[in-house]
Design goal:
Helices cover about 0% and strands about 50% of the residues. It is mainly beta and about 120 residues long. The strands form 2 sheets. Strands 2, 4, 5, 6, 9, 10 and 11 form a 7-stranded mixed sheet that branches. It has a 4-stranded antiparallel sheet with strand order 1-3-8-7, with no helix packed on it. A hairpin with a 4-residue loop joins strand 5 (about 45-50) and strand 6. The chain is globular. The chain starts with a strand and ends with a strand.
Length: about 120
């Protein structure tokens, strides 16, 4: 069964940290681009970070220096380490995967999506 399963969301105080995990199963595990998106009600889903097969990573300006995307290929798992969290980071975070592409810069480029995990940053 092909699926992306996220975990690690929750409630954290400003300045705190969380680590999200996304495990791929089935043919998704062979995808060459993985990413984390986030969405708040009433707004478009935005790219937070992406990682390519060769290790190249990209980040949204708003999270640069605070978030780190990484991948454990043996476990078919992608991580998003989030530090110095701010209230504006509050959103539902989605894991996404794309296969057979040289690049993926729009949500439409991603073939597979997880169910989402809520991250709430509040005191």
């Amino acid at each position: 069964q092909e699926q992306l399963k996220e975990s690690g969301g929750g409630l954290v105080q400003p300045g705190g940290s969380l680590r999200l995990s996304c495990t791929a199963s089935g043919s998704i595990s062979r995808s060459n681009i993985q990413a984390w998106y986030r969405q708040v009600p009433g707004k478009q889903r935005e790219l937070v970070a992406s990682i390519y097969d060769g290790g190249t990573t990209n980040y949204a300006d708003s999270v640069l220096g605070r978030f780190t995307i990484s991948r454990d290929s043996d476990k078919n798992t992608v991580y998003l380490q989030m530090t110095d969290l701010k209230p504006e980071d509050t959103a539902v975070y989605y894991c996404a995967a794309a296969a057979g592409r040289l690049s993926a810069v729009q949500s439409a480029h991603y073939d597979y999506w997880g169910q989402g995990t809520q991250v709430t940053v509040s005191s």
